[in-house]
Specification:
alpha+beta; Diaminopimelate Epimerase, Chain A, domain 1; 2 domains; nine-stranded mixed sheet; 6 helices
Length: 309
């Protein structure tokens, strides 16, 4: 098989990593694009490691961003996010990735899609997945993005330059409404669990939140521990499926199973001391609550930016 080179940049955005493409370098046909994306990431991989590509075996490390000059007057860049599934031969476009959104502005400037000068740039981003506008502001050095800095974020070693994202009117990104059902608390009837209270919220991405105690958890469980708890992971997926239908994202449970990106599903508990992956102790008095999120069937190693909204 003859390989065809396609220009791309491998970038970290927040606590995620992915490949950045110019739309002009890709075929316009989505099926052809998807084949490129899955091959580049090493999917599908029944072993869940993506060793034959650039993915890292986690949903946060199996992402693609496609950029082009914007078609809108209120944006500089059109940005499409693609979530490449790990064990399936499929690419999901149902939602955006807030972490990778932070890589879009610097890529646009460094690749000449946006001309910037001075000490700081603000790039206006149109996310095509959600039809929402995001402003990315970051420092410059000699007309290019400055990457060095002293900002540290949890889950990432070392420091770097700050990138500020402003999500303009993020409500209803997936469903058109901040509260898709109109209720602050919804009662879901979930197979294997029964009736359970949930908050269905659509801000930047659709998400469903339940109390940790309602599914037999304390709320401070580490992602690697959650991943081995088959019962809880099945329950959380069942909650996600019912929430997807209730929010109008999917027409029925079968359709909901095929839409894996949204809604995120998370469980919430009161603040308590916990230990991070890096071994750091976070004290209860320093936080307001604890949240653990599931993204694409995997416990997220950090709180997704859009879920934090």
């Amino acid at each position: 098989m003859q390989l065809k080179p396609i220009p791309a940049v491998f970038m970290r955005g927040g606590t995620s990593k992915g490949l950045m493409f110019h739309a002009r370098d890709l075929p316009t046909d989505r099926e052809q694009r998807d084949r490129i994306f899955t091959a580049a990431m090493g999917s599908p991989d029944p072993n869940g490691r993506q060793l034959n590509g650039m993915g890292g075996g986690l949903s946060s490390l199996s992402k693609v961003c496609v950029l082009a000059p914007s078609t809108r007057d209120d944006a500089d860049i059109d940005y499409t996010f693609a979530q490449v599934l790990i064990s399936e031969d499929r690419v999901d476009y149902a939602g955006n990735c807030g972490n990778m959104s932070s890589a879009v502005g610097p890529f646009a400037v460094d690749e000449g899609l946006v001309v910037a000068s001075g000490s700081e740039a603000t790039v206006r981003i149109h996310n095509t997945n959600t039809s929402k506008i995001i402003h990315a502001t970051f420092p410059l050095e000699l007309g290019k993005s400055r990457y060095g800095g002293d900002l540290a974020i949890p889950g990432v070693s070392g420091t770097g330059a700050p990138i500020r994202l402003d999500f303009l009117q993020p409500g209803g990104a997936t469903t058109g409404r901040l509260l898709p059902t109109g209720n602050v608390i919804e009662r879901l009837d979930v197979p294997g669990i029964g009736p359970i209270d949930a908050s269905l919220v659509d801000a930047a991405n659709a998400a469903v939140f339940v109390r940790a105690a309602d599914i037999g958890l304390k709320g401070d469980e580490r992602p690697d521990v959650l991943e081995t708890n088959t019962r809880v992971m099945e329950q959380l997926d069942a909650i996600r499926i019912q929430a997807s239908v209730a929010m109008g994202i999917a027409s029925d449970v079968d359709a909901a199973r095929r839409i894996s990106t949204v809604p995120y599903v998370g469980f919430v508990s009161a603040a308590s001391d916990f230990i991070t992956f890096a071994g750091e102790v976070v004290r209860a008095q320093d936080i307001d609550l604890q949240v653990r999120m599931i993204s694409n069937g995997q416990p997220h190693r950090a709180l997704p930016l859009t879920a934090a909204l």
